[in-house]
């Protein structure tokens, strides 16, 4: 993440004083007047900047420059005011001039970095940050991001390795590394480095797990399994070894052993939640074709925190929905809806799943409840009308559908469905004229859609 610049005025108080040599040939009274003039103008600039009168602040600073043309702080303040006005060219020039006068002050480079970042000139930002690193090594983190933004993956990967070795891994750098290693040309070198790291330190679990994933993503499952077994041998109680064993058993279609390994991973307090999520997603794909493991999937979801469970139940429900496994979709979407009643999208999926599964009594009750939560959401009126038509409660269907039509805005498909259901309702009520009217309207809308 980019480090926000700031400046403590006290750091520069001494720099505001006028160098004696500037007035070596001047009368004492003239020097006093010049000092007073500089300070008055400088503090006027701070006052005007504080109330966002940046043009007036700049005018006051220009007076300061006439008195002290080599004062770096004045240029720095000019840069900040120009940056506030989004005059990026003058802002950069001012910060740059400040750095030429005082090349040891990191905040002047931070000012240039701010300009580059705001203008998305990441190439120039790299030049600036390389100078900043000489003054503050923490900016190596920023340089990693800049290499990623400019697709310089070789340099990014080298810097990530350096930072991992010197200050330890971070989630952000791990995410960058995973992004880079999606390109197969970077994987070979990474595998070799990991093998060498394991040879040097066979007790470092993280290197095993990284290597297992690299082999798995390259479809080298036998090698992934070998590394997992080696980890298990070196560290018998290693929970990380189960990650590799899970993937191996799953690919061998050995569901029972995969479940055993998966549960050990999900129970682990050492293994990162993101790794657990990946394992659950892989198991979900497996369960779609092996429904006898549905109970194990339910148990697996239960290992996660309440917040994670909520997100996972929605995701799992949508997967089963896409596969038209309505019973399982309903199971998970109901859990999600119970914990997140305020979300529209998941509830629409749930109502459609009820419809596909012909659970019209349940659909009528749920849609009616949702209308209380969302009185202006037309989808819920539609499902309420559809459900009541199916259970032959035509008057109630008509009322819900007519109310819902008032909230329809630019949704042709839903408008067609409303008219069809209104036709059905009036048909049930024995009003042939209105039935025909709404069916014809639906037909016209269909033709317009084509």
Automatic annotation (TrEMBL):
SMART domains: TPR. The keyword Chloroplast does not apply. It comes from Flavobacterium lindanitolerans. Pfam families: ANAPC3. InterPro entries: TPR-like_helical_dom_sf (IPR011990), TPR_rpt (IPR019734). PROSITE patterns: TPR, TPR_REGION. TPR repeats lie at residues 72-105. Gene3D superfamilies: Tetratricopeptide repeat domain. It comes from the Bacteria. This is Anaphase-promoting complex subunit 3. Keywords: Signal, TPR repeat. Residues 1-20 form the signal peptide.
């Amino acid at each position: 993440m980019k480090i926000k610049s700031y400046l403590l005025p006290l750091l520069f108080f001494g720099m505001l004083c006028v160098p004696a040599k500037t007035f070596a040939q001047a009368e004492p009274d003239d020097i006093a007047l010049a000092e007073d003039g500089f300070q008055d103008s400088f503090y006027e600039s701070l006052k005007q900047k504080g109330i966002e009168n940046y043009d007036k602040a700049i005018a006051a600073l220009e007076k300061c420059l006439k008195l002290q043309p080599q004062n770096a702080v004045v240029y720095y303040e000019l840069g900040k005011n120009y940056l506030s006005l989004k005059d990026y060219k003058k802002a950069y020039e001012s910060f740059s001039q400040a750095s030429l006068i005082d090349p040891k002050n990191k905040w002047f480079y931070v000012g240039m970095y701010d300009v580059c970042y705001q203008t998305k000139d990441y190439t120039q930002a790299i030049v600036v940050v390389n100078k900043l690193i000489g003054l503050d090594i923490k900016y190596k983190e920023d340089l990693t991001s800049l290499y990623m933004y400019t697709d310089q993956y070789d340099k990014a990967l080298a810097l990530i390795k350096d930072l991992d070795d010197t200050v330890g891994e971070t989630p952000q750098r791990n995410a960058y590394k995973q992004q880079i290693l999606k390109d197969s040309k970077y994987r070979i070198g990474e595998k070799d480095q990991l093998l060498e790291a394991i040879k040097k330190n066979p007790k470092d679990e993280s290197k095993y797990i990284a290597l297992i994933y690299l082999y798995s993503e390259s479809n080298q499952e036998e090698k992934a399994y070998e590394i997992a077994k080696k980890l298990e041998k070196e560290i018998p109680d290693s929970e990380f070894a189960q990650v590799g064993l899970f993937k191996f058993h799953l690919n061998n279609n050995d569901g029972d052993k995969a479940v055993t390994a998966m549960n050990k991973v999900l129970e682990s307090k050492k293994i990162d939640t993101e790794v657990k999520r990946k394992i659950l997603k892989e198991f979900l794909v497996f369960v779609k074709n092996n429904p006898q493991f549905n109970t194990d999937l339910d148990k697996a979801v239960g290992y996660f925190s309440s917040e994670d469970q909520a997100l996972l139940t929605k995701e799992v429900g949508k997967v089963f929905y896409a596969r038209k496994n309505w019973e399982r979709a309903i199971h998970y979407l109901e859990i999600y809806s119970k914990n997140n009643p305020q979300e529209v999208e998941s509830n629409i999926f749930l109502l459609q799943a009820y419809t596909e599964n012909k659970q019209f009594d349940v659909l009528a009750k749920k849609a009616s409840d949702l209308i209380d939560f969302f009185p202006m959401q037309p989808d819920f009126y539609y499902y309420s009308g559809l459900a009541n038509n199916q259970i032959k409660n035509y008057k109630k269907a008509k009322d819900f559908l007519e109310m819902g039509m008032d909230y329809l805005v630019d949704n042709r498909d839903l408008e067609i469905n409303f008219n069809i259901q209104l036709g059905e309702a009036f048909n049930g009520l024995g009003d042939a004229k209105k039935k025909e009217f709404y069916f014809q309207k639906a037909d016209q809308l269909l033709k317009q859609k084509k």
